[in-house]
Amino acid sequence: MRIVELRELTVPLEGRVANAVVNFSAHTVSLVAAISDQYRNGRPVVGLAFNSIGRFGQSGILRERLFPRVLSADPEALLNPETGCFDPARVAEVAMRNEKPGGHGDRAIALGALELATWDLLAKLADEPAWRTIARAFGHPVTSDRTPVYAAGGYYYPNDSTARLVDELQRYRDLGYTAFKMKIGGATLREDMLRIEAALTVAGTGANLCVDANGRFDLETALAYAKAFSALELRWYEEAGDPLDYALNQSLIQQYAGPVATGENLFSRQDVANLVRYGGMRQAQDVFQMDAGLCYGLTEYAAMVELLEGNGFNRRQCHPHGGHLLNLHIAIGLGLGGCEAYPGVFQPFGGYPAECGVGDGFVRPTDAPGFGLEQKAELATCIERLVG
Amino acid sequence: MRIVELRELTVPLEGRVANAVVNFSAHTVSLVAAISDQYRNGRPVVGLAFNSIGRFGQSGILRERLFPRVLSADPEALLNPETGCFDPARVAEVAMRNEKPGGHGDRAIALGALELATWDLLAKLADEPAWRTIARAFGHPVTSDRTPVYAAGGYYYPNDSTARLVDELQRYRDLGYTAFKMKIGGATLREDMLRIEAALTVAGTGANLCVDANGRFDLETALAYAKAFSALELRWYEEAGDPLDYALNQSLIQQYAGPVATGENLFSRQDVANLVRYGGMRQAQDVFQMDAGLCYGLTEYAAMVELLEGNGFNRRQCHPHGGHLLNLHIAIGLGLGGCEAYPGVFQPFGGYPAECGVGDGFVRPTDAPGFGLEQKAELATCIERLVG
């Protein structure tokens, strides 16, 4: 059993949204295909995945470093000797040969797509949804075939208004979402508080509304926002400061009673270990948002979850960044706290196909084999271009 | 004044050496050219630099993200309004637009090459060696036109022996080097101690010999090595553990009296701030090895030096990773503790042209404008291929 070809397609993200730091209009994502020598129904079994959202396509690193290492390796080196089938951890290890330690940036994102494509391949070979393959591989008993989901949106738009924000969240509510996340930090504190109050007219209570500063604030600003909305008892306050500024996170937590969330820009186990050591994160309260597609794939992500549990945290405190099918299957397969969705933005990758049945604040994957990316109409055309 | 074209050439590193973690035989480096609309002697002035050594060429990120942002920007946005000349900090800022915080990996390396090419361009426009331009820009009085240098080598080779290692270091001594660095961690502790003792027959005393584990050790192994060579009073003990494992570094320092060195795999100010906060580094003793060509360029590197001084460290504790002309000029221009050289390896980028006159443990740049890369014969052919 071997991988005969690896392909990559750089796909532009649709939409012209912005958070407090980043305008996404020129962003891209790498869609990766791992073509195997195995056949089902007369066609080769192909593993598909992408590198989540927000850190650009990685065609250079994939084509120049990771793909050649995997394709030139002894095919046996990519297999689990017990099962005789592909082993995503070994694929990742081979792909990372002769890379130096540290510097967990773009290469972590490139490998995320490749490693997850191997999971899709594994699940398709077993003819089952990826969450079943993932649960079995990590020995986690699955207690539910659905997971809590919230609708992430509330970006800043040209000619924005609180009325536009309310319309947007109402649209999400009509789709079956009961919890929401919106951006802060792209306007003044006063304007952002008006936006939050407007959003609460849809969310109902603070328990249904998260706010996300995308790492923009210094400590003083982070605390000013915290003070302004502390009485609203928001669901969580996300990425107030620089993702690597653990001291800021700790200081914020010392002065803010509500849950904080961070981690979407931590791409290695060692970074998460530092957050745990120095960041002040509270057991059974704060939220970890690492994203397998940005952090070398599911092998490294599962090791992060294990590290958290070893430090007294509960895996339900994990809500991966990136609202898409990959993290839906991972959230169910590993029994995490939930996942997000971008129903209106980040097409063709964001959100879930209609068959997934969002409702009552939950989302449920279909029975399609693998991550079921082929069921998402917007993605299907890209997949067709990549693997024909 | 504007940059009319940006070019990149991915150049393979010569040599088949390995440290404890990495075999360099498939490594590459990006050589970048920033072609201006300014002319000298009938030819356009071209800024040249590369992304140091050890983290691969970055053609994908340069061509897909950084170059298009710089070339599509308003040319005024790249200039210092006071001088009317290119401003490397502004070039870097434009190149990083719409990038998320955190994830300081490959993009930091890509920008390193581009930002340093802007410094080469600036120095050539002023018709002076880059160290003069750098010293003036950062307001640092230059006290010497030469800087201490040590020869870095002592890698592991196929069919290695202590005799080969001794030969290698003797060759460096014959070239004028008086201090040396060798790798550890790629053999057993017992074998490595034999290698260290052999190296000391050339180095004379421990004060002339550094050892480098390239981040390989866990704490237990790091301490076992420390204990084994503590009586030798080595010049420094480099990158014992994972570069982001600040707790390991702190524990090692608590139990090892000699100087430790780290930082070559920290690519942002925030990572250096964390090393200072949590790593236990000692004022006037330990060594910081961040490398401008790996950390978004000289603008970010100089900010790191400022951060260190703000925390009571001396800039002479900085010895940048990467033994090449870029860091030679930076070490003199910023008044750092010294730089390294790879006289035998990492061609065409490592080491210095013969005109630089290594002797008595110092190296002195020539009067060539910019970083003087054109004077390095091995590089000149690559430059010719890139800019014709």
Written account of the structure:
- Chain A is an alpha/beta fold and 388 residues long.
- Chain A has twelve helices and eleven strands.
- Chain A has helices spanning 59-72, 88-95, 106-125, 130-138, 162-174, 189-203, 219-229, 246-255, 269-278, 298-310, 325-334, 377-387, and strands spanning 3-12, 28-40, 43-50, 147-152, 180-183, 209-212, 236-238, 260-262, 287-288, 339-341, 362-363.
- In chain A, the strands form two sheets. In chain A, strands 4, 5, 6, 7, 8, 9, 10 and 11 form an eight-stranded mixed beta sheet that branches.
- In chain A, strand 7, helix 8 and strand 8 (260-262) form a beta-alpha-beta unit.
- In chain A, helix 2 (88-95) runs antiparallel to helix 3, helix 5 runs parallel beside helix 6 and helix 7 (219-229) packs parallel to helix 8 (246-255).
- The first copy, chain A, is globular and about 60 Å long.
- The two termini of chain A are 22 Å apart.
- Chains A and B meet through helix 1, helix 3 and helix 9 of A and helix 1, helix 3 and helix 9 of B.
